[in-house]
Write a structure and sequence with these properties.
The protein has helices spanning 42-58, 64-82, 88-109, 115-122, 170-202, and strands spanning 22-24, 27-32, 35-40, 123-126, 129-138, 141-146. The protein has 203 residues and is of the alpha+beta class. The chain has three domains: 2-38, no CATH class; 41-152, no CATH class; 167-203. β5 and β6 form a beta hairpin. It is extended and about 70 Å long.
Length: 203
């Protein structure tokens, strides 16, 4: 590193055993047995929970749609960043916290309404779960907005490649071609969807 003019920062550099783990870019890396386990860091989870709580408290008297959009922006961004690691338990815990905080906010906002009326107005059954929902009238007709549920985000775990696999050897050619074709099919589907949306937008 010195030859290239780079130096490690003593304040930001930690030397530790992989079994004890370390935190980097909001994720904790720790090896258990032969498996490297990557999870959202505790500090990152606490920061998101504080942000969600602050957003809900700041929108107690604001339009519900404004709150839903702010929450979705925070939750979707955080969830997409961590959905490739071991995060299902963390997602479930955060979803539970969001539900509880939204319910407390509704009770504070509508103290005279019964629990049943509040529940029927703001919660919708979807896939065996209840989702916080806001219905709005727009120029194009009624629309429904829901709060993002982290547990519903598609988990994109990275698929391990055999350490002895070599793309230049004939016996592994099929493995790498299948992976490449899969990515190309995914890209083509995305491009087709974008083209369809562009055509609709252009009339």
């Amino acid at each position: 590193l010195r030859e290239r003019g780079l130096e490690l920062s003593p304040e930001k550099t930690v030397i530790t055993h992989i079994t004890r783990g370390f935190t980097f870019l909001g994720q904790t890396f720790r090896k258990r047995g032969q498996v490297l386990r990557i999870t959202p860091s505790k500090e990152g989870v606490r920061a998101l929970i504080r942000k969600v709580g602050t957003l809900i408290r700041a929108h107690v008297s604001a339009p519900m749609l404004a709150l839903v959009k702010k929450l979705n922006q925070a939750l979707r961004g955080w969830g997409n960043y961590h959905r490739h690691v071991v995060a299902s338990e963390t997602f479930a815990r955060i979803d539970k916290y969001v539900r509880e905080q939204l319910w407390r906010m509704l009770r504070h906002r509508h103290p005279k309404k019964s629990k049943r009326k509040l529940f029927r107005k703001y919660w919708t059954a979807e896939g065996g779960r209840h989702i916080f929902t806001v219905r709005c009238k727009t120029a194009k007709g009624p629309r429904v907005y829901t709060v993002v549920r982290l547990g519903a985000l598609p988990s994109g775990r990275y698929i391990k490649i055999r350490k002895d696999a070599n793309p230049y050897l004939p016996e592994y050619a099929r493995l790498f071609w299948e992976r490449r074709n899969k990515k190309e099919r995914w890209m083509m589907s995305c491009l087709s969807a974008r083209q369809y949306r562009a055509q609709r937008a252009g009339g």
